[in-house]
Amino acid sequence: MSKVGRISAWLCGASLACIAPQVFAQDTAGRTEGSPDEVSPNEVSAADIIVTGSRAVRNGDSMPSPVTVIQPSTMLAVQPGTLADALNTLPVFAGARGRTSNPTSTGSGGAGNGSANQLNLRNLGPTRTLVLMDGLRVPPTLLNGVVDVDIIPQMLVQRVDTVTGGVSAVYGSDAVSGVVNYIIDKKFEGLKMQASSGISQRGDASQYDIGIAAGTDLFGGRGHIEASYEYRKEGGIDYRSKRAYLDSIGVTGAGTAANPYVLQHDVRQATTPFGGLITNGVLRGQVFNPDGTLRPFVNGTATGTSGVQIGGDGGYYDSSLVSPLEFNQIFGRFDFDVTDSVHFHAQVAGDIKTNQNYADPLRLSGVTMLASNPYLPQVYRDQMLAAGQQTFTFSELFGNDTPRLNPVSHTEQWTANAGLNGKLGSFDWNLDYVWGVTTLKTTLNNNVNSQNLAAALDAVTDPATGNVVCRVSLTDPGRYPGCVPLNPFGAGAASADALAYVMPSTHYRAQTRMNDISGSVAGSPVDTWAGPLNVALSAEWRKVGFSATSDGEPGALADCTGLRYNCAVGSKLWTNSLASTDTVSQTVREIAVEADIPLLKDVPFVQSLNVNGAARYTHYNTSGTYWTWKLGLDWHLTDTLRIRGTRSRDIRAPTLYELFAPPNSIPVNPTDLLTGQSPRVQQTDLSNPDLKAEIANTLTGGIVWSPSSRASIAVDAYHITISDAVTQIAGSTTAYQQACYASGGTSIYCALQERPNGFTDTSAANAVTAWYTLYMNLAEVETWGVDVEGNYTTSLFERPASFRVLTAWQPHVYYRQPGTTTIDQGGVAFGPLGLSAGPAWRISGFAHFQPAEHFSVDVLERWRSAMKLGGDPTQVWAGNHIRSFATTNLTLTFDTGADFGTTTGKAEFYVNVTNLFDAKPPAGAYSGNGTRAGLRDGFALSDDPICRAFLAGVRLKL
User: Fold this and answer.
1) Model pLDDT for residues 269-317, shown as the tens digit of each residue
2) Nearest to 644 by CA among 47, 65, 177, 19
3) Do 527 and 534 form a contact (C-beta atoms < 8 A)?
4) Domain ranges of the chain
């Protein structure tokens, strides 16, 4: 679309406004948060809700930014689970990461927790989505600045407001793509309990949930106390092979016209079978059976990728599909009216959570074995020795009968805040302090130690005892204590003790801390003929700190003392590593002003016309000083027709992770385009202390038509451009490799790889030896689109019914970087370094029908459009396509009405079926994942990999 066309779209775009109250409430601001006259959730109406997205606007009807308001009970009725799972059904969210998002082995993308529940507006990244609780910043859970939203007390959330537009001038850095504000029910009275249990149709992915919340007034109504507790356990799916549609899917080829990328099924490792393959000498090409005997290796069909075949005897990866999860969520709050005009509150929230995933098994690639190895059957030892062969080379991928890398992340997250608020004449004021600390303990179980592996593979017979031992135990006792010899010959041959010695656990402990002091004053100093002039002044001081310790450092190197085979001096000691970090911190000082100015009222074609503006000064001690601003227009033509729009300049400052994270390394197997090889080498993530803030410019415009209280339709258009975008550049990415080779080695991207002979030698001997990723202010990100929402309440067969349809159209997400081709992730399923699926069309439809007084039916239908597998236009694909996908959820609810038994209250019993028609996600994979098919991918992020599942539960309110 041309620039003119986009401007036209903005002028006829819209914000989300007067929507059916049972599923949406237009935000307004009659009071300060937590004030005594705040209503209960059952009484919430469009006139009672406090504004999110503005401190100055007194009434949501004058709010120029689009705000979607969700009541959790509505969303959880059709998408049971965590509130994050429910929110991610909304089309404005795309690419959110969680326990079904193919986490990396060490979770580097989640700074040690790859299964953290994150929210991602517009698929611009979770670090560009600001998470608030009652308008206050939620402390970051992870070093990379991301909030794991499971900290939010789900039992007492009254509603969730999502501002889909830049509001950095109002709330500060990170509010680039928008804000998600969880509003707590601060006046809850009574007792409510819930319990549910579910399982997939295939007998896995179990989930259990119990919760309780209670609240009551104190001191004759001057005080209030409430608390909640929730326990959740989700069993996960430990093997991708438990879903037949995930049959070791991967991409082969080099992305060229001569060797295009091809999406393949039943991908196998050509030279690393289960059981093990002898790769040289008289027994070359023989693979071990489980009983230790040999048979000829059966090759599969060759592909365009070295080392990968289709079918045959090769091994394949089989990582976890859904990460197991267990958490305890705790919340408590106390409110007290100090005087008639001063109110005090204090609250604390805690989340004690464990999640994990299963990834790489042990892999031996071309290791040297002694021909006289006592685990080798005598007949084969004799054949080798008769041929004068003292050693042989050997490769193996250990299968599902052996341990896999198992990162277990235990998080203890606590946040507390206390504050005062009240009135001073015609002004509302508040002063708040927020404290947060998150301790993350990640244990990398079954992490390969290269020295232990080399020692265990060199097995000999102890002449004194006749037992098989590690050779080094005889030649250098005490050098490698506890060494247990490893028998690799045949699937299941290795002992548990040997595997435990070769793959011990390493430990990583990180702590993120935040202290935040903020205050604001807002009110109406004067009334004009067009209405009150509303102004707000706010200030904030914030400090975020981080430190970490690790016993599996990337810098730990093998010295190989006493080892004769399979150990290279100076090589990485640990296959996967997380680094220690000295204490680093970031301090922020901010001051902001905002005003809502009425211009016209009750004149021809103008029922009311308001201008809203905000400006903020921000100083980061790590990245400098910035100004952000916002200007909005709200024009009510009639009671039923409204136009509004905003223009804003927003920032996202680099996080501590991007600035100071120490190097972290994982093994990878992407294709080296210079040599055509796919060696298994280390990829090391590097930070950059010289980063500066990225700048976003956002334009939104919209129109809302509400012909009656029963119906509305809203269209909202936006255009976002982010300059100096902080981007993690991965040297292995196709575009950066091509830019490097085209420059003859002079491009800045050439520093992101290592190889022995420079960039002109294309022989296998010059294959890459290391890849690097680096954060840089290189990119420009641009996206635009339109949101459409329609709501209608009616009666069917004289019974209540309502319908809601939300649609997001986001055709393009451009990533532009110097020296490379522009990549468009709009309508693309996979991308480098966590770029997630971004369907051009995303639609969610909700239907509610109450056929009987105490019985209701809820249906959620989700659909996404077809996508490309890759968004790099220089890549050549043989079928760059993944089909569209849709799922249906059904919930049946029976309630007892106002009374049940002898107790005044209400009980609800419900049954939910997710993915009612058992739809299987279409196959897809990322081209850059190289030769480890089955480890990740297989389906687009946000598609449902579990398929049909059932859940039953009960809710009680006393």
Assistant:
1) 988 999 999 999 999 999 999 999 999 999 999 999 888 999 999 999 9
2) 65
3) no
4) 3-240+323-358+408-443+510-957
Alpha-carbon span 613 to 957, nearest angstrom = 43
Three-point CA angle 648, 652, 656, nearest 5° = 170
Nearest to 105 by CA among 372, 356, 466, 398: 356
Q: Take residue 116 and report the two structure tokens written for it.
A: 């953290």
Which DSSP symbol is given to 347?
E
- Chain centroid offset of residue 207 CA: 20
Place of tokens 């693979």: 287
Do the beta carbons of residue 523 and residue 306 sit within 8 Å? no
Report the distance separating Cα 58 and Cα 167, nearest Å.
17
**Rg of the chain (C-alpha set):** 30
Kindly report, residue by residue over 214-226, the tens digit of the pLDDT. 999 999 999 999 9
State the average pLDDT over residues 693-721: 93
**For residue 463, how many other CB atoms are within 10 A of its CB?**
7
Instruction: Outline where 366-503 has alpha helix (H).
Output: 378-386, 450-457, 471-475, 496-502
Q: Which of 5-14, 378-387, 660-669 has the lowest mean pLDDT?
A: 5-14
Residue type, 406: N
Report residue 852: phi and psi, to 5°. -140, 165
Give 3-240+323-358+408-443+510-957's CATH code, choosing from 3.40.50.1000, 2.40.170.20, 2.40.10.240, 3.10.50.40.
2.40.170.20
How does DSSP assign 735-748, residue by residue?
HHHHHHHHTTS-SG
Where is pLDDT greater, at 115 or 455? 455
Q: For 96-99, which contacts have Cβ atoms below 8 Å and span 24 or more sequence positions?
A: 96/120, 96/126, 96/836, 96/942, 97/126, 97/834, 97/836, 97/941, 99/234, 99/236, 99/322, 99/323, 99/324, 99/325, 99/355, 99/357
Q: Which residue has the tokens 């093990």?
A: 276
Other beta carbons within 10 Å of 318:
21
Q: What is the DSSP string of 600-630?
A: EEEETTEEEEEEEEEEEEEEETTTEEEEEEE
* Average pLDDT of the segment spanning 800-812: 95
> Please, which residues bridge with residue 848 across strands?
802, 858
Element (H, E) at 660: helix 656-660
DSSP string spanning 663-723?
PEEEEE----TTT-----EEEEEE--TT---EEEEEEEEEEEEEEETTEEEEEEEEEEEEE
Give the pair of three-digit tokens for residue 224. 């209030």
55 band by pLDDT with thresholds 50, 70 and 90: low
